[in-house]
Amino acid sequence: MTTKHRPQQTCRHLVIVLGDQLNADSSAFDDFDRENDVVWMAEVAEESTHVWTHKARIVIFLAAMRHFHQALSRRRYTVQYRKLDEQINRGCLSAELEAAVQELKPLKLIVTQPGEWRVRDMLLRTAKKMNVELEIREDRHFLSSPAEFAQHAEGRKQLRLEYFYRELRRKHEILMNGNQPEGGKWNYDSDNRGSFGSKGPQGLTTHKRFRPDKTTKEVIELVNRRFDGHPGSLDHFDWPVTPKQSRQALEDFIEHRLANFGDYQDAMWTEEPYLYHSRLSAALNLKLLDPREVIDEAIVAYRTGAAPLNSVEGFIRQILGWREYVRGIYWLYMPEYLHRNTLKAKQPLPELYWTADTEMHCLRQAVGQTLEYGYAHHIQRLMVTGLFALLLGVDPQLVHEWYLAVYVDAVEWVELPNSLGMSQFADDGVMASKPYVATGKYIQRMSNYCSGCKFDPAKAVGEDACPFTTLYWDFLVRHRKQLTGNNRMSMQLRNIDRKDPDEIKAIQKQARNLRKSLNSAKA
């Protein structure tokens, strides 16, 4: 354990810094006294094993934590830091924290609001057990607070992103002309659904890569050794793990990809995992990068003509809108939100989600790049991996655990509402007014994944029928009664009536056989 020498046995405040709280301006450091306070950080196996975590996700957290520890030490903070590979490491945060409290006897524990209910609950229980005060401070990284969202939600039957997003635009005066939105429209979503056509993406530039330094290399070696059986590869690890690198990644995105981001943010292409996306979500979620800085740089690009309004607004909506909105949902409804299952889905998660071993080209691409890089963009997550799980009827808890495990940017406050609510429609319609369901034709329209695939997205029955299309119709039949009355589903449900009863029976039979084959493959 790394600890600077201290002249006294006790400390005033033990300031807890979690792995996704790596911002030097954190509220946890308010009134920090270098002579009397201690920063506490710990790497523990539990945080990599409570879900079967991707190696790249483990590395990005540990490497960023170690670099942050080094930065604090250079600024003469006293830091008690437990490394994962220390012989005495107790394996879980609660045990490590108890040991630190016993040793340092702090008068108070201080922490910024954790990003996970499980961790917050652990801190509360540990503080009570050790009979020490715990102060949980507001997280200033965000542009809104859980209390602000709760106030927005009060009295509303539905909690839609658009209305909270507009409130934040007005409050923070972002892309506004007086009381009106820039360009006269609040969002340009309808302009941001372009596909590439037969020629594919044009003018793509390689994203800025960050060669692992000595510290990151040590973490990579440790993870490959300690978590050898975990999913994923570290052959291409090049994520930013410091504020400086994260700033460079932001500048690279603004200069080279933001202009095309809007038009093609929903598009997909074979062997192109990143396209025009920013790769900034992990840096934001670890708080290596401030969202205000990101928003400001995007606005500068618009004001100087470097990027069009539809791209800039669409990008800002992901940060000012979506991140703030899903965090509000998470803290408003946890912990019971975690166990919602509106559609009573109970199927196991197919083994292909851990192997990418499937004849479905779209899933092989999306899962394959996820395992290779720890990354997939939002449409690959929502309308490929998420859509297939939803249509198949996978238990949303298993879907949530998979998403939390495999993506480098996954922190539960942002991952859980996206997975359980938006993707799986398991939260009683809190986030989405309808299930996001479609046949394989949607994937065909938005990508080249169907080219050369053995399955035909136009067919629901037969050896070459697309499993997405088969399961789409089966989903509508299975949930017709529950979805009747949902105006946004009425046209899709009416399409069932146009099908011959014998065709419906054939579709249901093919869907049953598909589930059976996927379950057998897992066994």
Defining key terms:
3 domains, globular, DNA Cyclobutane Dipyrimidine Photolyase, subunit A, domain 3, disordered N terminus, single chain, 7 strands, 523 residues, 22 helices, five-stranded parallel β-sheet, mainly alpha, Serine Threonine Protein Phosphatase 5, Tetratricopeptide repeat, Rossmann fold, two-stranded antiparallel ribbon
Helix amount: 40-55%
Question: How many E strands?
Answer: 7
- Taking all residues together, what is the mean pLDDT? 95
H/E series = EEHHEHEHEHHEEHHHHHHHHHHHHHHHH
Class computed from helices, strands and strand pairing: mainly alpha
What is the C-alpha radius of gyration, as a whole number of Å? Answer: 24 Å
Instruction: Tell me the fraction of residues in β-strands, as a range.
Output: 5-15%
CATH homologous superfamily name of the largest domain? DNA Cyclobutane Dipyrimidine Photolyase, subunit A, domain 3
Which architecture name of the largest domain does CATH use? Orthogonal Bundle
Q: What number of domains?
A: 3
CATH topology of the largest domain: DNA Cyclobutane Dipyrimidine Photolyase, subunit A, domain 3
Tell me about the largest β-sheet. 5 strands, parallel
CATH first level of the largest domain: which class? Answer: Mainly Alpha
Principal-axes shape call: globular
